[in-house]
Amino acid sequence: MVARIFDRVLVARGSDGRKMPGQEIICGACGARDAVVNPKEGGHLPPEAAIKKFKQRGWRVGSSMAVDRCPSCAVAVRTVKVLNENEPDEEPSMAPKTEATAAIVPSVSVDVKRRINAKLMEVWTGGEAGYARGWTDQKVAEALGVPRAAVAGIRTEFYGDAQDNPDIREFLERADVLFSTAAEIEARTTALLTDAQKLVRGVADLQRDAAAIRKAVAA
Questions:
Q1: In this predicted model, what pLDDT tens digit does every residue of 31-49 receive, in sequence order?
Q2: Which of 44, 25, 23 is nearest to 33 (CA)?
Q3: Pick from 63, 153, 169, 164: nearest CA to 117
Q4: Which residues, listed in sequence order, are joined to residue 124 by a DSSP beta bridge?
Q5: DSSP 3-state assignment of 204?
Q6: DSSP classification of residue 132
Q7: Taking Cα atoms as reference points, which of 93, 168, 155, 92 lies closest to residue 129?
Q8: Which residues, in sequence order, are bridge partners of residue 35?
Q9: How are beta strands 7-13 and 33-37 bridged, if at all?
Q10: 0.70 cut: is pTM over it?
């Protein structure tokens, strides 16, 4: 296995702002940065030591920068995994991202990604329910003033498919009731139409009989 390599940077330390060699990590979700230095001056930390220090600070260190997560995003990932109990608690997937995520999510700024992720944590209930009542990708996009595609991309990457939500289920239940009522009305209408046709025929017969009687009387 190839050892993890971090970007080398100079980090200001101490009251005099003296710079020391350090190693930097960048969150693959929101772009947050952090760095560790070698307390023993004179070189950079071995990769294993750097990883240990980052983890002690709450970072989730993956096999590459794309799957590194800062403490805030790591908490979000763990929260989603608790809500979606069917998902194993494992490192973020190394599978290729979907076209929507790969093409759209990186096109928005780090601040927009952070705001979208924070909002999703508020309105996502997890499990089979997905969004809480009243919320969809479109509603989140409108609330934040961001592209809907960006919301959908980040939601898919960190929270999974949209599934349905209480509003959708309620709508479908209402639709089923309406469909059933419409079928009943159609059946009653058909019956009424049949009765009306019989009544028309009966009236016509009476009119013919009445006309014959008048003719006979007049004669």
A1: 888 888 877 766 678 888 8
A2: 25
A3: 153
A4: 131
A5: helix
A6: P
A7: 168
A8: 24
A9: unpaired
A10: no
